[in-house]
Amino acid sequence: MAPTPTGCLVLADGIVFYGTGFGATGQTVAELCFNTAMTGYQEIMTDPSYAGQVVTFTFPHIGNVGVNTEDDESVQPVAAGMVVKWHPTTPSNWRSAEPLTNWLARHGRIAVGGVDTRCLTRIIRQQGAPNVALAHAADGKFDLEQMVAAARGFAGLEGVDLACDVTCTQPYRWDQMRWAWPDGYVRRTDPIHRVVAMDYGAKRNILRCLASAGCDVTVLPATATAKEVLAHQPDGIFLSNGPGDPAATGAYAVPMIRHILDQTDLPVFGICLGHQMLARALGARTVKMNHGHHGANHPVKDLETGKVEITSMNHGFAVDGQTLPDGVVETHVSLFDGSNCGIRISDRPVYSVQYHPEASPGPQDSYYLFQRFAAAMAACKAR
Predict the structure, then answer these.
(1) 77: number of Cβ within 10 Å
(2) Residue 54: enclosing H or E segment and its boundaries?
(3) Does 1 score more than 60 pLDDT?
(4) Are residues 67 and 181 in the same domain?
(5) Are strands 350-353 and 268-271 parallel, antiparallel or unpaired?
(6) Strands 236-239 and 268-271, how do they pair?
(7) Cα 83 to Cα 57: distance, rounded to the nearest angstrom
(8) What is the rounded average pLDDT of the residues 11-36?
(9) Catalytic: 358?
(10) Which residue out of 33, 215, 272, 341 is catalytically annotated?
(11) Mean pLDDT score of the chain, rounded to an integer?
């Protein structure tokens, strides 16, 4: 006799997937996406860009190395939940400090294993990212009508500003650099450039890359004004990754960025949501994608060098490259679907990319972007 399912995923159209629940018990509603990365589930679950989303992992071996205290990209998991093919096994890794199941339960995150993730991924690709209800009940009792209603009642991510939910509440300094053998994370003691990083949902490893590139980083809340930014006398401005609809976040972020562009000649570097914020500040539009880009195996072509980078991505909105104004150059495109992945102002050190260059899914293909930012600040100060 088959065991009673203790996990349930219900799509807004009424499709139901049963499985084995783990992590926290209860129910949550969110948008459903899929991620194709083979490693990094802890980093994915703690990436603030996943706020408001349940993540389906296409790779089946999730949880097999446990979790540790070093790989979090934020203070706690931000993704609403996870769906996997196989129930996590007992972790086997020298860095493991806790099983994934315990970690999720401790942080109130629901997960379901034993789901046909290939079928689920096909649904997402063909029909777009659906709104879902995800539940874990030890007794296996689920109110399917209520779950369908909850999924249909979820407002979705269009028009929603989530950066304000994940941003820091107070400014803080960051000096930790990238992990390196044998010392692990070390502190930057001799910074060269002062950088203000706008926190729309910044990942820790992005801040580490800035520190490793020689930056003294001050992180400010997403709602900081241009006056507050410039009060720190920065040599450059960084616009971080983050969740939600860029049009909604742009209500307060775009005026600040426009003021920086109009009143200063400071270098500006944006990533992910920061890329979208910069594009909107320059006059371009952003659009909701069918199922977005989520994974560590996305090929992106640099149109100016011809180089192809293997990148990490996590976004459900994109810059409409057809709306870029004169003087703004499209620098990178996705080789999966041709969508915009990078821009720059033609005559100023202002640029951004859609992907996450700090994640190093290839042989650190994209770290040069942080070095380029440092070089731009050095050149600006020399002038």
Answers:
(1) 24
(2) strand 53-57
(3) no
(4) no
(5) parallel
(6) parallel
(7) 6
(8) 98
(9) yes
(10) 272
(11) 96
pLDDT category, 180, cuts 50, 70, 90? confident
Active-site residue, from 31, 43, 309, 358? 358
Q: Is the pLDDT of residue 204 over 90?
A: yes
- Structural domain including 100 reads 7-153
Q: Determine contact, residues 204/69, Cβ cutoff 8 Å.
A: no
Q: Given this model, what pLDDT does residue 364 score?
A: 83
Distance CA 223, CA 211 (A): 23
The tally of domains found in the chain comes to 2
Please provide the size of the chain in residues: 383
The per-residue pLDDT for range 61-83, each reduced to its tens digit, is: 999 999 999 999 999 999 999 99
Q: Alpha helix (H) ranges present in 8-116? A: 41-45, 100-106
Question: Do 177 and 148 reside in the same domain of the chain?
Answer: no
Give the pLDDT confidence of 213-229 residue by residue, as tens digits.
999 999 999 999 999 99
Cα dist from 372 to 112, 255, 269, 311, 349, whole Å? 42, 25, 9, 17, 9
Looking at the fold, whether 207 and 353 belong to one and the same domain comes out as yes
Task: Give the integer Cα–Cα distance in Å for 117 and 58.
Answer: 6
3-state class (DSSP) for residue 262 = helix
pLDDT for the residue numbered 278: 98
Position 360 scores a pLDDT of: 73
Is residue 1, in this structure, part of any structural domain at all?
no
Whether residue 125 sits in one domain with residue 98: yes
Say yes or no: 18 and 139 in one domain: yes
| Residues 365, 276 share a domain | yes
> What residue type is 379 in one-letter code?
A
> Is 73 one of the catalytic residues?
no
C-alpha 244/C-alpha 162 separation (Å) is 5
Same domain, 37 and 63: yes
> Residue 207: is its pLDDT beyond 70?
yes
